Fold:
Amino acid sequence: MTANQRLVVMLYALHPTDRSGAVLEAAANLAKLVGMAPPVFSSTRKQVIEAGWLEETERIGHIRHYRLDPKRLGESVVVPLRRAT
Structure:
């Protein structure tokens, strides 16, 4: 993982999120927080998505929201089933 990729992952890990874990901040603002030009941030975020660290949670028009992949955080995404009695 490159330094820029680590910055993006850490930004998504530490930035405030909604209930689903999605960061709702605009990409341009996120880029500014880590000192990247918006095009660099966008391409780096794409690399992080392709590596499986981020996932898209929702799309509102042309705006996409992302969160850290829960599997990468060690969270169980499988709900155990139990027999109805």
Remarks:
- The mean pLDDT is 87.
- Residues 44 and 67 are 15 Å apart (CA to CA).
- The beta strands are 54-60, 63-68.
